[in-house]
Each structure stands twice: as structure tokens, then as C-alpha cells.
Amino acid sequence: MVIRKEEGRFVMQGVCDVEDAEPLMQALLSHDDVVLDLGPCRHLHCALVQIIVRGKVRLLPPEDEWMRRFVFAQLESSRAGTLSGASSSTQAPR
Amino acid sequence: MDPLLAEFVAETRDQLLAIADGLEILRGDPANLAEMERVFRSVHTIKGSAAVFAFAPIQAIAHEAESLLGEAREHRRALPPDAAGVLFDAFDAVALWVESLQSAQLPPSAEREAPALVARVAALGGHAPQGPEAGRDEAALLAEMRRVPAPIRESLAAAGGSYAYVCYRPDPGCFFAGEDPLYTARQMPGLEALHLETVPVAQGEADPYRCDTVLHAFCRARLSDFETLLRPLGGQAHALTVAANALLSAPGPAPDPVRDAARGLIARQLELLVSNDGERRAAVLPSVRAVLGNVARALGPEAGLQGIAELDAALLVGRLETWLEGAEPAPLTAPVEAPAVAAQEEDLRVPPALAERVMSAATELAISRTTLSSLTQRLAAIKPGPIANEFAALQQQLDHQIRELQAGLQELRLLPLDEVFRRLPLQLRQLERQLGKPAMLSVSGENLRADKAVCALLHEPLLHLLRNALDHGIESPAERAAAGKPSVAHIAVEARREHDRLLICVDDDGRGIDPARMRERARERGLRDEATLSAMDDAALVQLVFESGFTTADAVSEISGRGVGMDIVRDRLRAAGGSVHLESAVGKGTQVTLSLPVAVAVAQVLLVEVGGQRLGLPLSRVHEILRPREEDVLHVKRSESLQWRERIVPLVRLAQVLSLPVSEARPTACVVLNLPQGPLALGVDEVGENLDVMIKPLSGVLTELSCYEGSALLGDGSVLLVINPLGIV
């Protein structure tokens, strides 16, 4: 478990793996205006990214360069609803 | 070694061990689901970690093994009876490659051997090896690419050149298989853009463990660079090379009217700036800035126009030109290569060199303490009083603290023996194959910890013993059958600790060593004269295997070599203050016991004096020190005994052991030693203080003297010989 609550925000730390999916989802479902601090997060499992995309959260950027460039930017835009691809408008065919 | 690679080696060793354990069970019980699951998980982990280093041969083997085990555990295909054997061969090869890793490069043999192994594993599953996925329909892949939002494609197109486009549509259940598609994305070479397309589902209704994300990646790399990364993903990922202009020519989503209007406005502002200079430009600037500010707000942060209104005119021109050319704003920092994911380093790992440095500083500290201790004693003798007392108290405190420090540091150096033992099953299987003698290995005591140096030293002797056991000790299956023995031989490796010694027994149920034949061989080789040989008992004769150049094998095989082996084992152990002992029973087997100090660093010794010489006795063996009364010493024929705690224990004069003159009178002091055979009283002239010393193994001719454990340098610069209590009886 690498999610910890700290001064009104949830901090994701280190390499966040799939085991954190359940606690993260619970955290987002049971709190309003969640602030998720990705600062110390070195990697987010894909399962966690899905949860964040679907949640109403305010994000603080990760220090990890790769995370910031390839994940955070898109999470931010999907939250703001300005970038269609990350979430809403497309229906993934199977 | 690169720390990430070291991590890979350590982790893969663990997984290979688990695979071997599981396969051993599956060999006898091919339908055991729990073991199948265990092996599957380990294989999967290896596949994943091998991908990090692009170790294609390992990935290919793991991939095939995973498919085979996957089908079996889902009851789609039973595991063939020979599966365990084939998988053993394949993963033993992987183990050898991994053990030989010095850099992130597998040995050349890996490339050579892998195809045959992959084919054998694939054949178990009834198919040809699944090579890299054949290219999927290009049009379908281009259609996938068009799902990526236009701004992303535009910005990539603007940079020109070509990209490798990867569409990775992970299996919905992939999280359960331990996959993290985002981690895979991290491994992609030259990643320029990544788009995550997630199926919209309300948070509360989504299954957090179902993968609903499609990954679109654009990389500055060749398709061949992806082969190793994507092969394990099978049909989940497809790659295609696209030229920059093809990114845009693909019909994207409906044109964005706001963006088009913004383009027009920005082009107009640029024209205003370029066509005016000096005062006129200064005059239009406020209105240009106002318009740009509005455009930036309308487009949002993704347009990359934030802060544009604050730029000075010259910079503004360049920036607007770039923007209109389709490029997103130049990043504030230089573009960076996607960094590899950092290894999870939650444990504190200490580099061995640093641990060594701290250890040796602590040893020096202990030696200084010894010097200080003698000063304190001198002070107390010359000027007894409060100051001397304070010194003594401080000295005691320091003693305690230094001991704590040393204990902690020694712990740091201790490794579980598992580090050594885990390689044995692999070696045994190789020997089994080479020699055609089936054998089973049982290992116990692998959780015991020993000094890092001891572990490092044990590996080779143990390997020699294992080879010797299987090559010379264990009979051929036919011979075993004739002798009424089980066809599968048994070799047991057991570690146990006795005080500060580590004992490792290698026990086989083979033919044993025939003392009569040993005598004959020794005679032929002139190792001893006839009289000595005749006088030697069986136990002594079998010890001759430790003589240099001696072998009892009928034929010198490639396995055990030409008569080298046991003498190497003996020499290696002696050099580290250890010893080796062999017992054998004809027809029943041989047991070789290695004895080593658990820690080679600092030991406590008790100073004793005999014949005017100062010597050290390892304190760990000292049970009690006493001054015997006349009636405590009993004489039976020529030997002496000591009455101690209502027992009679043998009394040995240290002077006699060391060939010094022995006084007729009873010894002034006796040190009762704790030995495996029972207590033994050692008669000495005087007993002194306890010292912390670093015992170094003896070198040269002195190594032949079993009564010495080693030597230690004392604080006053003199050399102290330390007695090996086990060598005096």
C-alpha cells in the first residue's frame, strides 16, 4: 500500500502497483474534492490510471519525468475535459 | 554490475529456484494445479524482467513455457509427461546464462541454444514456436491510429521524419496475469507521445481490475527495436512505421472550429508584428497581446500558448511562427528520453566496499580499545584512585559499545546459506544428465547465515563434493539395482551451526571408499611407506583422498577431472580457518563434513600462557576457567583427568600439544573447553584477559599445524597465535 493520507490529500508514493487499485478507488469514492499528490510517485499501474481518469480529483504533478510527460499531462487534460482521447468521447471497440 | 541488472540476477535466481521446485513436483505429478500455477507465475515474472533488458532468448523460452503452462492450468491441454524434463533443460540453460551475466549482455551461447530449446518447449504444446506476430492489416492499424486526438498527431507530424506507431490493446484480464501495460509503455524505446484511451465508465460501476485502456504510442525507433518487447504480448500489440505526413493525412475526427478560428487570428497577429517595426510595432503590440491572451484562454493549456501575451515582440514572432507550423510549443526544458523505470529500492542496500570499509574501521577501533585497555590497567597500577576508576568505568562502557557495533556489523555481512545451496540442484541436474545417474538432492539448514566471505568460499568446494559424490560415489543404476539399492541415488547437503562453527555435511548413499583399495593406491603412488600404510586404520586410510593428486575413481572422467578436487577442497577450507573431515562405509556411502568459522572478522580470544609463550584460545569454546587443587587432578596410567563439577573430564596439557616441556606439577590453571566430543580441560601456566582480535588464517608451512586456528596482531604489535581447540585432540 503506497497511498497515504496527509493533510487533506492522498499521496501516491514510489511504484504504485495494482494492489493499490482498491484502496484508491475507495478513497476517491468516499471523499469529495480529493487532492491526489503524485509528487513522489515513480510509476502508476495502468489500473490506477484508469481509476484516476474516471474520478473527480485534483492532481499534483509527479516529480518523475516520464510520469509527468506521458501520464500526468493526459490525466490533467482528461480531468479538464479538454482532451477527448483520454476518456470520454471514444468507445473502445473490442 | 549495474544495480538494476544485479536486481534482475537476484530475482531471476529466486524465480528459477521456484520453477525448479515446482517442476520437481510436476515431474511426479503432472496434473498438480497448484504447482503449475506456481511455475507459471515464476515463468511469467522472468519473462517480464527479461523484457526490461531485452534478453530475447530468455523471453522466448519463458513465452513458450508460459503458453504451455497456461493451457495446462486452464485445462485446455494436459501437461505432457515429459514436460518437466524439457522445461528443466530450458530453464537450466536460462540459469546458466543468468549466472554468467556480467553486463546487460547474455553469453553468445544463449542465442545459439535458445531456438532449439524454444522449439522443444513449443513442441510440448503441439505447435511451432510463435515468432513475432505477423504484421496485422496495415489499414486496420492506421484506423486505430486515427483514434489518437488530432492535436497529438499534428504536433508529431510537425516534427517530421517517421515514427514507430504501437497500438497495444491489452487483454482485459491482463492485470491478473501480473501485467502492467503502462510499465510496458515505459520500456518503449524513443517514446515521443503516448495516448491512453480509456473506456468511459462511471467510477462506481467500473471493475478496477479489468483493463479498459488502449495504449497508442509513437516512438522514434525502428520496428525491430520493438520485437523483444512486443513478442511476449502476442496479439495484444501491433506496430507499424508511419511517416510524419501520414499522421495527418489519415482522416481524423471532425475539424475543430475553435482551433481553426484561432489559427486565423494568430496568423493575422503575426502578420501585424512582422509587417511593422520600431514604433509602429510598439503601437500594435498591446492589441496583439490582448488578442493572443484571449486565443490562449479559448484554446486551453494544451494549445501551449500560456504566457504568450507576456513575451517580448521578437520572441513572440518566433513562437507564433512555430505554433502555426503545427508544432506544439517548444518544451521549457530540453526533451528528455523516457527514463527507465527506477528499480524499487525499499530495502537499504549497502555496497560491499562500503560495508568492508566500515568493518575494517570497526576492527581498528577494537584494536585501539585493546591498547587503551592496557593503558588503563597501567594507570590503575601506577596511580590508583578516582581517575583510574573513571577510566576503568569508561573502558567498560566502551567495550560494550564496541561489541554492539561489531555484532551489528557482522550481521550485515551474514548471508543465508541459501545463496550457496540454491545453485546445487541445477548443478546436480547437469551432472545427472552427463553421467546418466539419477539422483535426488535434499538440502537442509539453508536458512542459516554465514559470513559473506564464508558463503563465497563454500561454493567451489561444495560443487567439487557434489561432482565427486555423483561421479565416483554413486554407482551406475545397474550396480545399484544389483546391490538392492533404490535406483535414484540420494545426496543430502546439510548445514548446521555448532557455536561459532558452521558445519556442512555432504552425504551420499553410494559405494563408499574402500580402505583396502586406498592402501593399495597409496602404495602404488608411494604416498606413505609400507610400515605407515600397514599401521593406518580404515578411518585414516580414507582421509588419503585429500592428498594432492589422489583419486579413487576407476576412470578419470571429465566431470571430476584428473585427481584434483579433494585436495582443493581441503586447501580452500584451511585457508579460511576451516577443516574437512571424511567418513565412509563401504557399500553404504560417504560423508564429507566441512567446518568453517561462521564469521571471519573479529573473534574474542582468551589469553593464556604456557612455557613463557602467550597464546589465544577462542572464547566461544571456553566453558570455565579454574585453578585445580591437588586432589582435582587424577592420574590414570600416563594420562591425566580433571575432576570437574562431579564429572571426570580428560586433561590435556597445552605444553604437550605444542611440544614444549611439560612440568611434573599440576597445572596452575585449567580452561574447560566445550568440544563436540564433550568437555576437555586444557592445562596452562597462566590465564590472562579477553581480547578482541581479527584472526587471520596461517600461511605457508604453519597451515599444516592443525592445532592453530590462525594468528592475530595485537595492539602492541606482537603476533598472537590462536589455538584451534578442535585440533588439539
Spans of chain B with pLDDT under 50 lasting ≥5 residues? Answer: 131-136, 250-255, 327-346, 554-564
Count of helical regions of chain A: 3
- Structural class computed from helices and strand pairing of chain B: alpha+beta
Describe the largest sheet of chain A: 4 strands, mixed
The structural domain count of chain A equals 1
What is the global morphology of chain B?
flat
**Main sheet attributes: strand count, strand direction, barrel closure of chain B:** 6 strands, mixed
Strand order of the largest sheet of chain B: 14-18-19-17-16-15
Question: Which structural category fits the helices and strands of chain A?
Answer: alpha/beta
Domain count of chain B: the total is 6
Q: Count the beta strands of chain A.
A: 6
What characteristic shape of chain A results from the CA principal axes? Answer: globular
Concise synopsis of the structure shown:
The complex is a heterodimer of chains A (94) and B (729). Chain A is an alpha/beta fold.
Q: Can you walk me through this structure?
A:
With 94 residues, chain A is α/β, with parallel strands linked by helices. Chain A is 37% helix and 24% strand. A 4-stranded mixed beta sheet of chain A has the order 1-2-4-6. A two-stranded parallel ribbon of chain A has the order 3-5. The termini of chain A are far apart. In chain B, the strands form 5 sheets. Chain B has a 6-stranded mixed beta sheet with strand order 14-18-19-17-16-15. With 729 residues, chain B is an alpha+beta fold. Chain B folds into 6 domains: 3-124, Up-down Bundle (Four Helix Bundle (Hemerythrin (Met), subunit A)), CATH 1.20.120.160; 138-249, Alpha-Beta Plaits (2-Layer Sandwich); 257-324; 352-414; 417-597, Histidine kinase-like ATPase, C-terminal domain (Heat Shock Protein 90, 2-Layer Sandwich), CATH 3.30.565.10; 602-727, Beta Barrel (OB fold (Dihydrolipoamide Acetyltransferase, E2P)). Mean pLDDT of chain B is 80; it is low at 131-136, 250-255, 327-346 and 554-564. At the A-B interface, helix 1, strand 5, helix 2 and helix 3 of A face helix 8 and strand 2 of B.
